[in-house]
Automatic annotation (TrEMBL):
This protein's name: UPF0352 protein F3J40_15210
SUPFAM superfamilies: YejL-like (SSF158651)
Alphabetized InterPro entries for the sequence: UPF0352 (IPR009857), YejL_sf (IPR023202)
Organism: Candidatus Pantoea multigeneris
Family in the record: Belongs to the UPF0352 family.
Length: 75
């Protein structure tokens, strides 16, 4: 079941496109892109979430990531 968001699809898509442009501009390989994005998530959690909530937020994020990954054969 899709979750509703307080952010518009247009705003999310615009920000995502800008992030992708930066990675493409630097010809960033997939493994480095994932490392950078993971570091960004860690930094956001550690600097923006109360210490008592960080593990729960990280688990929620990891669960959402797992749920969004598809097993299809396409790259």
């Amino acid at each position: 079941m899709p979750q509703s968001s307080r952010y518009s699809d247009e705003h999310v898509e615009q920000l995502l496109a800008e992030l992708v442009q930066v990675l493409e501009k630097h010809k960033t390989p997939t493994d480095l892109s994932l490392m950078l994005l993971g570091n960004m998530v860690t930094n956001l959690i550690n600097t923006s979430i109360a210490p008592a909530q960080r593990h729960a937020m990280a688990r929620s994020f990891a669960d959402a990531l797992q749920a969004s990954v598809h097993d299809d054969k396409a790259h």
